[in-house]
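[job 4417] fold queue: 2 targets
>>> target A
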Amino acid sequence: MRISYPSSEKIYVPGEINKIKVGMRKIKLLDTVTLDEHGERIFKKNNPVIVYDTSGPYSDPKISIDIAKDFLVYVRSGTVSVRMWFNCRN
């Protein structure tokens, strides 16, 4: 499953304390349009907005996603069986 968002790109910002890369999304904004005193449109460029990206690797086109393989690694770690047990009980 691949997630894509129009008018934005996945970027990574280096961590300030630890040597990590934090996934962020750089979102391009449309121009602001206003009217001058003669009714003519004035276009003002807006800078992109950078927000925290919670989608993980699923929105990064540079990363290969194989859900079946990744799920097997998760199952073998023993975490899934515990989570499945809790989900069945609730």
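>>> target B
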Amino acid sequence: MRTGVLLPVRGIRRFVYAPAATPTKEIPMRAIDCDCGKHMEAETDEALVPIVTQHMKDTHPEVLELPVEQQQKMFAERVHDV
């Protein structure tokens, strides 16, 4: 017995079986919500860092003047799962 759903084929007067939708695995995301309201997210912390860095360059350049250790601490305190 076939499982799936019947779907119409465009331009043809017949139906074909399409496999039933399989559940997709959700990819956990990491995010930071800036004090200015900007929400930034990516699949990993490593992918999130350049996004946050660009936002800091564009919007909050004074943060980039802080010592790297302090910037890393701020990141670690604010990053969270989505």
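[job 4417] complete. Note on B: The longest strand covers residues 5-8.
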